[in-house]
Design a protein that fits this description.
Nucleotidyltransferase, domain 5, about 350 residues, alpha/beta, binds 5'-O-[(R)-(carboxyoxy)(hydroxy)phosphoryl]adenosine, single chain, 2 domains, globular, binds zinc ion, 11 helices
Amino acid sequence: MIVMGLESSCDETAVGIVSADRQILANKIATQIAEHKPYGGVVPEIAARAHLDHMDDLIREALKEAGLTLSDLSGVAATCGPGLIGGVMVAAMAGKAIAAVRGLPFIAVNHLEAHALTARLTDDVEFPYLLLLVSGGHSQLLLVKGPGSYRRLGTTIDDAAGECFDKSAKLLGLGYPGGPALERAALNGNPRKCELPRPMLGRAGCDFSFSGLKTAIRQRVMEKLGDSGIAFRKNGNELDADFVSDVAASAQAAISDILVDRSSHAFALLGDEGINITSFVIAGGVAANHAIRLPLKALADRYGVSFVVPPPALCTDNGVMVAWAGLERLRLGQIDDLSVAARPRWPLDI
Ligand code: KG4
Ligand code: ZN
């Protein structure tokens, strides 16, 4: 069984091809970093047009990389939500068109499910497992019971963890994309130099909050800039490198503490209910961050479960994860009608 997966829900156009024996046959990505950089974030209209420009070529290149033709595929999967709707429609329509013309099964993949199931491709993780899904648009703790079967234990009440990384990086003049830039800046910083809040720490439940942290970082930057204020800062040039590194390291430490605290509540909750999990899996773009992994691994060790993080290139958006989620669904006969709509919002647990 071989499935192709198409992805275009944010700022990466991507095509992946995987086989049932967990081989990655192709992994093609066209990133739009250069197109969005001047605006400091993803511009939906630019993203949608860029997806249209790149998708056909990427499909051709992926097939070439795999040494396959469309007739070799067992099915076509496409992210059909959640995400920027103009972009989501590109993968959805391309996937449906191929499925219609070739008479192949079509699988409408939830982007979050694609992140959630990646660890089964990379590490053959067994159900059920605890998943910390941390991306640019989502921060969730989920009990993953099977394809299409999720229980949400907690979610963010405001910003996502990735958004907090991105906005903090922007405030520090580190540019876009913010997460990797902040991680790099933090390498030279002292995580205890700048005192920052850890919203929700110790509170009951598994929900997250990051907006207070973002505001605190903004205040630190304002204090540092004095009367000139943030409005007069050009690309962070007035902030000295030591300050930027210290705030970056402190922000990363705060985000990490929040993720660990909330995850420990999820472990406790599952323990109270007598639910035995096989692993603790981290997924989504923020899982590419090396600094947050260590304390999360320590948590998994404390509870005696294996700790699984896919390689960074499969943590950030890609087509392989969509192909794999499609394959898991296809194996179970969970295919979709071509009338299925692209959805800007699509919670995993309903
Ligand atoms: O999963 P993803 O590629 O796209 C979404 O579905 O949102 O996640 C993108 C997010 C961005 O917020 C980005 O800054 C963050 O993941 N990210 C990181 C790192 N690499 C990507 N955050 C922290 N450290 C990183 N190394
Ligand atoms: Zn994503």
